[in-house]
Target: Amino acid efflux permease RhtB family protein
Amino acid sequence: MSLSTWLGLLAICCLGAMSPGPSLAMVVRHTLGGGRDKGIVCAWAHSIGIGIYALVTLLGLAAVLKKAPLVFNGIAIIGALYLAWMGIQALRSKGGMQAKFAAGEATDTLTAARDGIAISLFNPKIMLFFLALFSQFVMVADSITAKALIIFTPLVVDGLWYTLIALLLSHSSVLPKLREKAGLIDKLSGVVLILLAIRVMYTL
Model:
């Protein structure tokens, strides 16, 4: 893989990671609920899901899914239902994350990791991203090094981006202000997740 090709891959991965959506909302929620450490756990768990998609695309399974619409649609429906469930949970959250802080209850590491990897694996938008844009780079992965770059570039970019988000949000001058608006953030996160679920179902 040439340097220019890798830079193209890097640029697409950066744009994909920086695109606002449910992944960002999830990292924000766990940073508010458990602080910097839980936000970072959620970020890297999410990046593992991204790495799994990269590996699947590299192995050619993405092409198989594309040729099997029933399998693809089934995965998309499961993903949409999961996104809707998380959205409803966020909307039903009483008092938002602020209430959890008041009660001394923090988001635990396992939940942060579970939600991080789930939001990437069950988000059809990410699946479509890899099918539509990422596969072109797989074609030029003609060595072990190139194949490793195909997998680890999106994984590392995603993890670093959301780690940066968690670090910024957990800063002493930022986090208190966000905590005051935690209930609103929960509600907005819920709406975003439900709208994405509806969009996925509508486009099937």
